[in-house]
Amino acid sequence: MLCAPAQRRMADAIKDPQQAQQAVFSRILQRHADCAYGKHHHLTSEDNYAAVKEKLPMVRYDELHPWIERMKQGERNVLCQGELLAFEKSSGSTTAAKWIPFNQDLRDEFQEAIRAWMGDLYQRHPHLTGGRSYWVVSPLTHAEKITTGGTPVGLANDDEYLGWWERKMSSWLRVGNHTDLETTAKELLAAKDLRLISVWNPSYLALLYEKMNSPQMPWPQLQIISGWADGNAAADAEHIKKLFPHVTFQPKGLLATEGVVTIPWGDDFLAAVPALHSHFLEFEDCHTREIYRVHELNDGHDYEVIITTSGGLWRYRLGDVVRVEGFAEKTPRLRFVGRADGISDLRGEKLHPIFVQDVLARLTNHFAMLAPHYATDRPGYALFTTDRNIDTISLDRHLSKNPYYAHAIEVGQLNPVKIFEIADESPAQIYVERCVALGQRPSTVKATALHRMSDWEKWFHGTWRAWKNHPTPLLKRIRSTMRNWENFSQKHRFKEPCALLWKVSHRFFRVIMMLSNMTPFWYHTNKLQWPAVLVCCDVSVGMAVNSMWPT
User: In 3D, which of 398, 346, 396 has the Cα closest to residue 371?
Assistant: First the structure.
């Protein structure tokens, strides 16, 4: 089995995580200490951990941004040695997207973790080898693009995360290798021998299943579904478990664009273990702020992840918080708890409060705060503001500069943003009152552009913005058609006997325009079939009239 060697290495590593991590630490220094960033901080390949800890600061993306910009311009050996394969994009804080350098060494680190996980999975579930699988490694598709320095943006597809042999075999082991939901759903529906599904956010699988519109379980041999099950994904994981009650759901480890932190190991219901042979990991205690290595973690404690990879991220604050839940041999099991930096992540969109703050600053100088909204079975965001003129379309366009948010909206994992117009004279005071009710001291409450709590409409007085400002794609098409037809009617007149027919057709448009602007129930349920039929009929009649009796 191709994954067996990595699985055996991992089995040995969990017995001595300190030695395994020391080997990774030495490898990264040997290969990449001589880069420009390393020279700037006086790194050498002979440094021990204490020396590196003294020389290198812990950083966030913003502090590495100038170095990455140099790499985007084509400069070599900046954060790491050697050629780059691509830049992977992720959501950012002050910028709309983070550009993560991806080289062959980093791909090898991803492959090591994925192979160890798959080796363990197939060893415990040998019947998986009798059928095909569907898996998604990266949650975001990329448009073809290169940087000014000539480096591709994004790997071609998820197969690029695999080794050469795995890529050769994936043509018959894998189904649904497409970026659009409809095509993927059709192929998956036809794959009766499907036995494994591995996705990132379980809500993505729920969307695929909805597209299939299958009256019964389409995969009689399905055994394992792997997906996120912690943090904000917990509710979506429970939904999948109810959809597939006879299938084992395996919580996925913590995998980010920047690197792999944990992988599933052993019992499918236990927390994951650190990917010991991939990257060098450090952990900051959320209470004491002391820094620890993998073998020094304590059961029940929460830690923020700090990662060093061969892709050029040196002592990088990932922003994820994990909790130790027991041990596998001498290695702590880690479960994702949430974000340390105020990021909101309902469906993988990873909205950062600083990014949202910059967006709102461009659009308004009134009180404005974005927060999750759960009016339907599909979550979304609501903007609570005193600004009566802020434009929903512009707001959504700016938020969509975050690639994960744009993707979640595009595939239907998130509802479009809504606006709640606040009527209170002192919304900031009401904001403080609720924060105090949530347990904060009044003196410590800080204003924020993005709050992760929902139900703010129960605290503010006001009204939801009219639904006409939140059109569904179908309503957008209806309105566009009507506007074009209105323009056409002003430029053309018809000869008898079609004048009466034109007037009747024109009245249909006026009625539909009124209904599309006044009926929130249709927006909420997407039940717009009969207005769409009227539009089609109206357009058909108008085109026929124009072709037969033009002036």
Answer: 346
Instruction: Please give the structure tokens belonging to residue 510.
Output: 């006026």
Q: Judge whether residue 3 has pLDDT over 60.
A: yes
Amino acid at 292: Y
Residues of the chain with pLDDT > 70, as a percent, come to 76
- pLDDT(104) > 70: yes
The secondary structure element, H or E, covering residue 18 is: helix 17-32
Backbone phi, then psi, for 78, in 5-degree steps? -90, -65
Inter-residue contact 399 to 417 (CB < 8 Å): yes
Q: What sign does the CA torsion over 70, 76, 82, 83 have?
A: positive
- Rounded Cα–Cα distance for residues 398 and 394 (Å): 6
Report the 3 state secondary structure along 370-416.
EEEECCCCCCEEEEEECCCCCCHHHHHHHHCCCHHHHHHHHHCCCEE
For 92: left if phi > 0, alpha if psi spans -120 to 50, otherwise beta; the answer is beta
Measured distance between the N- and C-terminal CA atoms of the chain, rounded to whole angstroms: 75
Band (pLDDT 50/70/90 cuts) for residue 546 is very low
Closest CA to 56 of 67, 46, 41, 76: 41
Using DSSP, state whether 339 is helix, strand or coil. Answer: strand
- Mean pLDDT value of segment 466-476: 50
- Other C-beta atoms within 10 Å of 152: how many? 16
Residues 209-249: pLDDT tens digits?
Answer: 888 887 788 899 999 999 888 876 777 888 899 999 999 99
Dihedral (CA of 97, 103, 108, 111) sign: positive
DSSP string, 213-255: T-SS-S-TT--EEEE--SGGGHHHHHHHHHHSTTSEEEE---B
Instruction: Supply φ then ψ for residue 464, to 5 degrees.
Output: -75, 140
Strands (E), 122-189: 132-135
* pLDDT tens digits along 114-141: 899 988 988 888 888 888 888 776 544 4
CA 375 to chain centre: 21
pLDDT digits (tens, 9 = 90+) for 286-301: 888 899 999 999 999 9
Reference 247, options 224, 217, 216; nearest CA is 224
Token pair listed for 428:
């900031």
Residue 319 has pLDDT above 80, yes or no: yes
Q: Which residue has the tokens 């290495």?
A: 9
Retrieve residue 21's tokens.
């991590």
Query: What does the chain come to in residues?
Result: 551
In angstroms, the CA 411 to CA 546 distance is 38
